[in-house]
Model the fold of this input.
Amino acid sequence: MNSIAHSPHAHAPSSIGKVMLTVMLALAPATVFGFWLYGWPAINLWAVSLIAAILGEAFVIRIQQRAVKPVLMDGSGILTAWLLALSLPPYAPWWIAVVGSLFAVVVGKQIFGGLGQNVFNPAMAARVMLLISFPLEMTTWGAPLPLTSPNGLNLIEGLRVTFLSQPIDGMASASLLGHVKTEFTRGIGLDQALTGFFTPMDALWGMRAGSLGETAALLLLLGGLVLIARRIITWHAPVAMLLGVAVPALIFSLIDGNHYAGPLVHLLSGGVMLGAFFIVTDPVTSPNTAKGQFIFGLGCGLLTWVIRTWGGYPEGVAFAVLLMNAATPLIDQYVKPRIYGRDSKGVALPAKKGA
Done:
């Protein structure tokens, strides 16, 4: 026997459903914190997102004359809607969640052929669609109203906010990135714009206005570390994305600290933590190799920083992910794994004696 003709095969103890469930459990702390922070409207919006995704995907699968139960039980559609819900403003109207979830599972996933066939991350594709189509609803933020505070919303008030778009006195606020972008257009420097608006500890814990699940940076980080420890994801794409955001932010803040935000502002705001550990690690829309994943994550981070700094939108994670999703086939073309039994040039390795 001169060469190895066939690759070895091993049975994996996990399944798609178990992987999706593990990711959901890792998201749960940040999600529950968002519920506590923004109250019943956030809970309603999350529930509507998941229900719309389940019904929409079941309808499409039924039209295709495929078995509905196996597809729904893998949990991929639910996870997609969950991730989308975490990126939405917590006081957005119910139809935003419905339109976004249907777009994610139908256009972003099933039209491409279902799980494993989609080119773009469905949740981020839906978020970009919503942001472009409904900019007012997608950029209307509310100050946190914890359920335990005197100003917290009860169930009836929460239903009115979600389903009747009832405004709340004193709820108008701004996300950190949106506030900085607005102040820059008024000619106000960064130091003055951040005064009283950004403190690292508040940003770390998530006590600020923002999307439903993006503000709790610490909880998202811990959830991501759990996924790495469980070997659901690897460290390459998350670390690369964080570096892609932090390094240019550090360099430019050292050059002109009154016009360019530093690494902490970028890392602890917006959807960087959610994107780094739960979006760019999507195995379907990211490269296959460790080196390719590092390049992919680095590109996502760098593009996020560029869009935030010079683009028309204050947040750039979703746009950056979609752009790098389009580049994934190119990365896989030039960064290929070594074939088992062959060297880096594809030449068969000699067999060991006795093989």
Summary: Residues 1-5 have pLDDT under 50 and may be disordered. The longest strand covers residues 141-142.
